[in-house]
Design a protein that fits this description.
Structural class: mainly alpha
Largest sheet: 3 strands, mixed
Radius of gyration: 21 Å
CATH topology of the domain at 48-159: Glutaredoxin
Protein name: AGR3 protein
Helix content: 40-55%
Mean pLDDT: 87
Number of strands: 3
Family: Belongs to the AGR family.
CATH class of the domain at 48-159: Alpha Beta
Strand order of the largest sheet: 2-1-3
CATH superfamily of the domain at 48-159: Glutaredoxin
Keywords: Signal
GO molecular function: dystroglycan binding
Pfam families: Thioredoxin_7
């Protein structure tokens, strides 16, 4: 009888721990759905409001990526973004990250129109950095895959501006 109950107990423990492991794995995987392919190791906030709150709380700039699933330019940028280690690392450690497939009510996030892909920075004082732009004068906040070095520079600029201005 003793052996039987020990066996039952250890089976119960195995069942519990594997359930726990699955729950932990699920927990770890939760951001995937929010990443939408932009980087699964990045912790993504769900809403612009949450992003502003986290930026203020953590004193990190908020990076907002506007994109659409069926936009080929967005897909190309997403691929380059997700494959770039420097961007992924900065996004994980130095930014509050948000990617949106809809517009926000904050008109400051569309100073020159509601096009995609569009990447904007908001600093922890909750100022939209309209001065951090890409290469194109007709769409100031768009980036193409070959503009990844510009985007990296702009991420660094967003970080520098915090240190010098706050």
């Amino acid at each position: 009888i003793m052996l039987h109950s020990t066996l039952a107990l250890s089976l119960l423990l195995i069942a519990v721990s594997s359930n726990l492991a699955m729950a932990i794995k699920k927990e770890k995987r939760a951001p995937q759905t929010l990443s939408r392919g932009w980087g699964d190791e990045i912790t993504w906030v769900q809403t612009y409001e949450e992003g502003l709150y986290q930026a203020k709380k953590s004193n990190k700039p908020l990076m907002v990526i506007h994109h659409l699933e069926d936009c080929q330019y967005c897909q190309a940028l997403k691929k380059a973004f997700a494959e770039n280690e420097e961007i992924q690392e900065m996004a994980q450690n130095n930014f509050v990250m948000l990617n949106l497939m809809h517009e926000t009510t904050d008109k400051n996030l569309s100073p020159d129109g509601q096009y995609v892909p569009r990447i904007m920075f908001v600093d922890p004082s909750l100022t939209v950095r309209a001065d951090i732009t890409g290469r194109y004068s007709n769409r100031l906040y768009t980036y193409e895959p070959q503009d990844i070095p510009y985007l990296i520079e702009n991420m660094k600029k967003a970080l520098r501006l915090i240190q010098t201005e706050l």
